């Protein structure tokens, strides 16, 4: 069974779609069942979408590009506020 720590560790890979299928399933099961991870993931997703909008980038932009510091700031701020 995946733990909350695993979810944190796999989150980036999950969001950019590079998580292996079996891991992805376990990730989603944990998130669905865990009252702590569910809102955490939801907030994180919103923050990512907000970041894409601010940078006027398509959501499917290249995942290998370096993440601009401004985007990290926006994400952290958004997570703090919600
Ligand atoms: Zn959890």
Short description:
The chain is mainly alpha-helical. The chain has helices at 4-15, 21-33, 37-54, 69-81. The protein has one domain (4-81).
Provide a descriptive summary of the structure in words.
The protein has 82 residues and is mainly α. Helices cover 68% and strands 0% of the residues. It has 4 helices and no strands. The longest helix has 18 residues, at 37-54. The structure holds zinc ion (ZN).
Summarize the helices and strands and which ones pair or pack.
Blueprint: H1 4-15, H2 21-33, H3 37-54, H4 69-81
Helix pairs in contact: 1-2, 3-4
Bound molecules: zinc ion.
Zinc ion binds next to helix 1.
Structure keywords:
single chain, binds zinc ion, 82 residues, mainly alpha, globular
* Rg measurement, Å: 13 Å
Q: Domains counted in the coordinates: how many?
A: 1
Ligand types:
zinc ion
Derived from helix and strand composition plus strand pairing, the structural class reads mainly alpha
């Amino acid at each position: 069974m995946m733990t909350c720590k695993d979810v944190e560790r796999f989150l980036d890979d999950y969001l950019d779609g590079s998580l292996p299928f079996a891991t992805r399933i376990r990730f989603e099961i944990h998130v669905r069942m865990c009252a702590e991870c569910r809102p955490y993931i939801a907030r994180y997703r919103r923050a990512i979408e907000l970041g894409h909008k601010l940078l006027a980038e398509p959501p499917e932009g290249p995942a290998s590009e370096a993440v601009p510091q401004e985007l990290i700031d926006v994400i952290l701020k958004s997570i703090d506020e919600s």
